[in-house]
Amino acid sequence: MAVRDVAAAVAFFGLLGFRKEKSVVISGAQFAAYMGVEGIEAEHVTLVLEGATPRTEVQLLRYRHPEPVVDPTIRNLARLGFNHVCFAVDDLDAAVVRLQAAGVVLRNEVLRFHDRKLVFLDGPEGITVELAEWGSPPAAVS
Question: Parallel, antiparallel, or unpaired: how do β-strands 128-134 and 85-88 relate?
Answer without folding.
Answer: parallel
